[in-house]
Specification:
The structure holds two protein chains of two kinds. Chain A is mainly α. Chain A is 73% helix and 0% strand. Chain A starts with a helix and ends in a 7-residue tail after the last helix. The longest helix of chain B has 41 residues. The chains are: A mainly alpha, B mainly alpha. Chains A and B meet through helix 1, helix 2 and helix 3 of A and helix 4, helix 8, helix 9, helix 10 and helix 13 of B.
Chain lengths: 55, 687
């Protein structure tokens, strides 16, 4: 059950792009800030929303 | 241990066969939905464990020693090796759309049996295979898209055709799902207020996430969900308010105009302000509702009230015309096989796969789960009394414009229903009327509401659950409309940029406005024609969408087959060729019938001719002349669009066969474009 809960939480964080943001901070050696989130989310959304959403 | 597993799989096979046999042969007594659940679950498990494993091991030769692009090109952004269950969930969330919910609901017109069999068999042998093979191919090619793979493996023509086909399909898709929303909200102040409220809620979420609590997506999604629930209660209050109710009671045409205006502005606004927060919210709601529906069905175990086969297997169905072959398959579309999934399978997912064998659960398994969602939607629809189902889904033009005429027609079909019964049901769910609420969404919402209410709360909260289900469907449909219009604009700008360079710049505002308007007007026109169609827009638009979607799947299977031949796995090309041949047969039969059938309800040209004859003979009232002329034009346009799809896929089929024959005869070298083999250094603890 604990393992299942961990996977569910990790999935929710992945779908919320929070994991991707954490990887971004690690990859660039930066700290979280409003400006950094805006920079990350603009880049991520630009990539995400150039692809069609499924029907 | 091995013996126990063997016995387990034998038991699964026996249970699957028994359940399928019972579903297929039981007549007279209502069949419990649990048999559909068992048949589907057991068949998917067997397909996954044996057929998909065979494909992975013998056909694709998946190799965990080989570094995936997630490892080789790891950049902390899109290329990142990720735990397989997280990738599974991510991929499933990306492929889950309204198609597997609406298609099976409409196909229930034939009874529960044809839809059930196609959803299960089609997914196991076709849809899941397509998703799996495209994911595998893209993974071996560093995450290349379907269009890029078509260009590299088949030829430049293949790539161009894939691009144009996707753009055309998107226009039809956006129109048809917009029609589903319009029909669900027509004359419904409760529903309209709830959906309208999601827009300021999404804007609030966008501002919250960008400025007040940056990065707190889960937090703002919980707040957003709470606000959306409050808006459902707000909608109930509005529907009883003497001044506000008329403001939110909109006709189909008015709603269509609202959705078109929404589509234009939403696709031009910054992504962070409306689209992204709505997308986050709709993803979580979608996954939550699917789980709730699964639990609800297991808890309530409703009987299937619709018979195994209805009288409409003869092709004269009120929801859409045409016989089981080919129209059941076209209508179900995404629930069994979806060309759109190949775009997702060659998008983000291949860049997250940590080990090659993870493609097995992610590619095949997630499509099997999507197909299971289709089974649940079919159960929700078939749990309704047949008379109620047809009263909700049949357009006025087919059964009569008044409730009295409708119940008389439907009862004469052998599916008794009364005006009092429908009025009581409408009152229970807080709607003025449930007659002719076509498009599939209202009847699906009714079925879901009954299941949820039976799980707890009863009739007293049927209205809440009905509008919750409408909200859930409309939320992610509007997200698809917003995102799809945006993507369509990018694709159009990409194409037009070759003609006039500034149009290709996505930051040049005049270009953004012109191309957004072009895309919105394109799907908006088809939406409008669907709204004014007296036979119900679903009769013409959904088959057009289904044909387009299945033809894109045929394109994906052409790419998959080409890759197998080039990998010297030609002796296994039957795994993609069998579904390809079936799809081509079904879609070409459907396409040619939709163009040339002499039956006006089926054939676009026949309907145009019938309307033209009526116009020429003076049988059309003066007030309806302009509308009739528009309908004639629309039918001819639909025939042309259908013809274009058939021509495009014929071209790619010919091009693909040319490549296969060339390689198999030795006149052409078999050269794939896979990334080179690099030994994986990834440690288990990293994923």
């Amino acid at each position: 059950m604990k393992a299942l809960w961990r996977i569910v939480v990790a999935l929710m964080r992945e779908l919320a792009d929070e994991n991707a943001y954490a990887r971004h901070l690690r990859a660039h050696g930066r700290e979280h800030s409003g400006a950094e989130w805006r920079r990350f989310s603009e880049e991520r959304m630009r990539a995400k929303y150039t692809r069609p959403k499924c029907c | 241990m091995k013996v126990i597993w063997r016995l387990f799989w034998v038991a699964m096979a026996v249970l699957a066969a028994f359940s399928l046999g019972l579903i297929a042969l039981e007549r007279g007594e209502p069949v419990n939905s649990l048999w559909l659940v068992l048949a589907a679950a057991c068949t998917y498990l067997i397909g996954y464990r044996f057929y998909a494993h065979f494909i992975a091991a013998k056909v694709m030769l998946l190799d965990d020693r080989r570094a995936t692009p997630a490892e080789r090109l790891r950049n902390g952004h899109d290329f990142e090796p990720t735990n397989k269950w997280i990738v599974f969930g991510h991929h499933f969330a990306a492929i889950a759309g309204p198609g597997p919910l609406v298609g099976p609901t409409l196909a229930a017109q034939f009874g529960y049996l044809p839809g059930t069999l196609w959803i299960i068999i089609g997914a196991v042998l076709g849809g899941a295979v397509q998703d799996f093979i495209i994911l595998f191919a893209s993974m071996r090619r560093d995450g290349k898209s379907l269009g890029q793979m078509a260009r590299e493996e088949i030829g430049r023509l293949g790539g161009m055709i894939a691009l144009v086909t996707v753009l055309l399909i998107m226009i039809i898709l956006l129109a048809v799902i917009a029609l589903v929303v319009v029909n669900a909200l027509r004359d419904s102040p409760w529903g309209t207020f709830t959906i309208a409220a999601t827009m300021p809620i999404a804007v609030f979420m966008g501002l919250y996430l960008r400025y007040w609590r940056p990065g707190k997506v889960l937090e703002v999604s919980v707040i957003g969900f709470g606000l959306v629930l409050a808006s459902i209660f707000g909608g109930q209050w509005v529907s009883h308010h003497p001044a506000l109710a008329p403001v939110f009671t909109l006709s189909g045409v008015a709603l269509a105009i609202c959705v078109i205006i929404y589509g234009f502005f939403a696709s031009a606004l910054p992504v962070w302000l409306l689209l992204a927060p709505r997308d986050y919210l709709s993803t979580f709601v979608k996954l939550g509702v699917v789980m709730m529906l699964a639990v609800g069905i297991l808890f309530v175990r409703p009987d299937l009230e619709l018979p195994a086969l209805t009288r409409f297997t003869d092709g004269n169905g009120p929801i859409f015309a045409g016989k089981i072959f080919p129209f059941c398959f076209i209508t179900i579309a995404c629930g069994a096989i979806s060309g759109f999934h190949s775009l997702i399978s060659s998008g983000t997912t291949p860049k997250m796969i940590a080990r090659e064998w993870h493609a097995w659960p992610v590619g095949y398994g997630s499509m099997a789960l999507e197909s299971f969602v289709a089974i649940m939607a079919l159960i929700a629809a078939c749990a309704l009394q047949p008379g109620v189902f047809f009263a909700v889904n049949s357009p006025g033009g087919m059964v009569g414009a008044t409730p009295e005429a409708a119940v008389a027609t439907i009862s004469s079909w052998g599916y008794p229903v009364t005006v009092a019964e429908m009025n009581a049901l409408a009152q229970d769910v807080g709607e003025k009327s449930l007659f002719a609420r076509t498009g599939g969404a209202p009847s699906l919402a009714l079925g879901m509401a009954h299941i949820f209410a039976s799980s707890g709360g009863g009739r007293a909260i049927l209205g809440f659950w009905y509008h919750f289900a409408i909200m859930f469907e409309a939320l992610f449909i509007l997200t698809i409309i917003d995102a799809g219009t945006r993507v369509g604009r990018f694709m159009l700008q990409d194409l037009l940029g070759h003609v006039y360079k500034p149009l290709g710049q996505t930051s040049w505002m005049p270009g953004v406005i012109v191309t957004s308007a072009a895309i919105v007007l394109a799907w908006g026109y088809f939406l409008y024609q669907g709204v004014i169609d007296p036979l119900g827009g679903i009769n013409s638009l959904w088959p057009l969408f289904g044909i387009a979607n299945q033809l894109l799947a045929a394109v994906a299977l052409c790419v998959g087959t080409t890759i197998l031949v080039k990998m010297h796995r030609a002796r296994y090309m039957w795994i993609t060729c069998i579904p390809l041949v079936w799809l081509v047969t079904v879609t070409f039969t459907a396409g040619l019938q939709k163009i040339f059938s002499p039956v006006p309800r089926i054939g676009f040209l026949a309907q145009a001719s019938q309307l033209q004859r009526a116009l020429d003979s003076g049988a059309v009232a003066a007030s309806k002349v302009a509308e009739t002329q528009t309908l004639i034009f629309n039918n001819r346009l639909d025939a042309v669009v259908c013809g274009i799809f058939l021509v495009l896929v014929t071209l790619i089929l010919i091009d693909s066969v040319r490549v296969w024959v060339g390689i198999l005869s030795g006149s052409r070298t078999a050269q794939t474009n896979e990334a080179p083999f690099v030994l994986s250094q990834l440690r288990a603890e990293e994923i």
